[in-house]
Write a structure and sequence with these properties.
Elements (H helix, E strand, L loop, with lengths): L4 H21 L5 H19 L21 H26 L2
Helix pairs in contact: 1-2, 1-3, 2-3
């Protein structure tokens, strides 16, 4: 058993948003959070492309929760990955600037 796709999305998306915000408003020491958020989001998207989040040998019933992300959720996670990469580069460059 696993968690439904919307629950997984709402657990991962705030971590991605925190990965964008923290290095920009705080300091470069928060870059580890951004790197972790990127790795987590890529891992979750890879898992979504595979078998999904709820593992079952039976066909999904109408009353059961979704096993995969919708296309909108995938797009949001990809945009968060790109924003995380941009925020990480910005934080590192601003820390290295004189």
């Amino acid at each position: 058993m696993g968690l439904p796709a919307p629950v997984v999305f709402w657990m991962v998306a705030p971590i991605g948003v925190a990965g964008v915000i923290m290095p920009v408003i705080e300091e470069v020491t928060w870059v580890w959070l951004t790197g972790s958020a990127i790795i987590l989001q890529i891992f979750i998207l890879r898992m979504n492309d595979g078998r999904g989040f709820i593992r079952s040998r039976e066909m999904r019933r109408a009353y059961e929760a979704r096993r995969h992300f919708s296309i909108l959720e995938v797009i949001v996670l990809f945009l968060l990955i790109m924003a995380d990469i941009l925020a990480m580069a910005y934080a590192i460059l601003m820390a290295a600037a004189p």
